[in-house]
Amino acid sequence: MKGLTQEKLTEVWSKILKDKSARHALEKLKKAGFGILHLKPRDATLERPNWADCIAAIPFLPNRLSRRRIHLQSTLQKHWPLVRAMRLMQRKLNDPFCEVSIASIRDLSPGELIRLKKLVKETTDFVEKFLTWNWYARDSNPRNAVIAELRWQIRERTGKPHDLEFTELIDGAFRAAGVKDGPYLTPNHLDRIEKREKESRVKATKRLRSRTQT
Q1: Mean of pLDDT over the chain
Q2: Mean pLDDT of 64-72
Q3: What number of CA atoms fall less than 13 Å from residue 86's CA on the CB side?
Q4: Does 91 reside within a domain?
Q5: What is the distance between the alpha carbons of residues 173 and 176, in angstroms, rounded to a whole number?
Q6: Which of 132, 169, 200, 209 has its CA 20 to 30 A from that of 53?
């Protein structure tokens, strides 16, 4: 998504609306209960997008392999001395009969010194909590994740996946982005994409639970 801008999404969405086949697909989806013709792109970061953002962004989303990685708190035991050292500083900062001096590569401003007690406590509390976490990161295939979610939403709202209209809409997005040969998606391809995305989430959760219960 590097270089994806709000202007680019708006341009692509505008071309999608002018594309005869894509427009026809959108109108049929609207009649079926999935009306998004009125939307306009609003979030090029895709952190809180609407469906106009997602559809216009599909041609630019990486089509990469999904990856999972589990981070176990047992691998971070060597960092507990840091927490103990920070707790010690916290106690000294709160001791009215103890003077703490900071030696650093840069001098702390008066404001930073005033906030130091609160900063050390909050930071130590968080680091201590973080060192007890087991967590996993699942990097999805961005393009497939959006396609799977969009197909699920269409089915949820209309009762059917409407794959003919859906694939025409995706083809229109690639045409609007200047890509002549977009991905050839059949209903079987879409089934596999949606199933793979769902299974990947479930497997990652099960794996995390099994690793943390041993």
Answers
A1: 88
A2: 82
A3: 18
A4: yes
A5: 5
A6: 200
Rounded Cα distance, 157 and 33, in Å: 6
107-144 pLDDT per residue, tens:
767 677 778 889 999 999 999 999 999 888 878 889 99
Where does a domain end: 103, 133, 163?
133
Segment (H or E) for 69 = strand 67-71
Same domain, 101 and 161: no
Span between the terminal Cα atoms of the chain, in Å: 39
Sign of CA dihedral 43, 54, 171, 30: negative
Tokens 């998004």 sit on residue: 36
When pLDDT is averaged across residues 5-20 and rounded to a whole number, the result is 96
Report if residue 160 sits inside a domain: yes
Q: What number is the average pLDDT over the span 36-62?
A: 94
The answer to whether residues 56 and 173 touch, using CB atoms and an 8 Å cutoff, is yes
Q: How many residues does the chain have?
A: 214
Domain enclosing residue 91, as ranges: 74-133
Domains contained in the chain, number: 2
Whether 182 contacts 171, CB under 8 Å: yes
User: What distances in angstroms separate CA 104 from CA 2, 90, 143, 195, one per listed residue?
Assistant: 37, 17, 46, 54
Residue 1 is predicted with a pLDDT of 61
- Smallest CA-to-CA distance from 41 within 3, 7, 1, 2 is with 7
Do 18 and 61 share a domain, yes or no?
A: yes
What percent of the chain stands above pLDDT 70? 90
| pLDDT for res 213 | 52
Q: With respect to residue 1, please indicate whether it lies within any of the assigned structural domains.
A: no
